[in-house]
Amino acid sequence: MTLAERVLDGDVRAAARLMRDIDDRFKSAVAELKTLYPHTGNAYILGLTGPPGAGKSTLVDQIIAAFRKKELLVGVVAIDPTSPFSGGAILGDRIRMNRHAEDAGVFIRSLATRGCLGGMSRSTMDVVNVMDAMGMDVVIVETVGVGQDEVDIVSTAHTTVVVMVPGMGDDIQAIKAGILEIGDVFVVNKADRDGADRTARELAAMLEMKHPEPGAWLPHVLKTEGSRGIGVEELMEEFEAHRAFLKSSGALQRLIQERNAKLFADTLREELFDRVFGAINENGDYCRITDGMRNRTTDPYTAVEEVLAARAFP
Amino acid sequence: MAERKLRVLVGKPGLDGHDRGAKIIARAFRDAGFEVIYTGLHQTPEQIVSASIQEDVDCIALSILSGAHNTLLPAVNELLKEKGADDIVLMVGGVIPEEDIPGLKAAGIREVFTPGTSTETIVAWVRDNVTPHA
Predict the structure, then answer these.
(1) Most buried of A31, A314, B95, B115 (most Cβ within 10 A)?
(2) In whole angstroms, what is the distance from residue A141 CA to residue A28 CA?
(3) Which fold has domain B7-129?
(4) Which of B55, B64, B133 is nearest to B101 (CA)?
(5) pLDDT tens digit string along A130-186?
(6) Distance to chain A for B50, nearest Cα, Å
(7) Can you give the residue range of the structural domain that contains A140?
(8) Are the C-beta atoms of residues A126 and A26 closer than 8 Å to each other?
(9) pLDDT in tens, B68-77
(10) How does pLDDT run across A41-62, given as a tens digit for each residue?
């Protein structure tokens, strides 16, 4: 049996190995993903993003528990940064959620960014697809702790949750561009801390500044205490409301369209680069180009034009 | 062909709360270029094995200072066998009496590191003895 067939058969080890093959860029994983693709598209994908230490993992732990109470199967992709120096990583999101490790209805996978910016890893979308094909009802993606404009999560998730904490700056921070534009749901976590009300108020004020288009989703600001599970029930209701909105408004189709377009574009970009770069590396053109750039006899713009012209691209 | 990155689970089974050693090892593995899945304190053998399978790790590195190594470690190894995952290399570091080491090795624990071992020694051992899953 192929890995993909075993995944569809419910084999957890096969799923874990396939995710590894995807992450390690094994060519064989592509064939497996082809087999799985028709079985995807059923999971509700929930994205959580926000600065490091905002309590994303702890909140995810509570959200897993809440979905499990509804007897839904839950997959989690938790992303942490790769060291730019050693290439190693410490993936620690599991610490907060490992009480679910023994629950056969939960599958948690940690991924390292491996040099990918944007708060995600290159493999995220494919790993989400594997979980989807495994039959997970919900897949939660927790991004690496992000700063201001790591917004890739929106093209992956149906519902994007931005998790903030009190005391992260004044209201001008809240009207800057970036992650504060992408939330479908805003959470002020650690709401027992000083300044939580003020942070929530400023976020709400920022959201109200935007003139809503008719029929558009209006994001709310919710307060939670992840470690004690306070506010999680309201959060779950908000997810449900957003999901219902996506279905009734037709926004879901648009979202799926964008997601598919991105998956295709990313795959194309990667494949084209690998092929072209592999070819010029092999035939020595790459060396000649870098030598030429060093002597200033060629420039990167001309070199790329020549490389592409030598191949059958219109 | 793409290259495998070594994945190691670092965790503490049982009830002792001293995780400085585990954190130092996690950090040393990170600096060696491994991906470390750090599960933290108070893990049951079931949690460790289940997390190891979901994360597809090549090696499990446990830290035990409580004296419960003769109970916890064979339990982890048994569970790995039960799940068909005993290709994962199981190693331990901690306060473990010399006379317990042969018994642990007989129970499937591949290596036992006692206090005073340098992180270089442990990283080198992993490089020599752990081959990433094909």
Answers:
(1) B95
(2) 25
(3) Rossmann fold (3.40.50)
(4) B64
(5) 999 999 999 999 998 776 667 778 788 999 999 999 887 666 666 666 777 889 999
(6) 6
(7) 40-249
(8) no
(9) 999 999 999 9
(10) 999 999 999 888 899 999 999 9
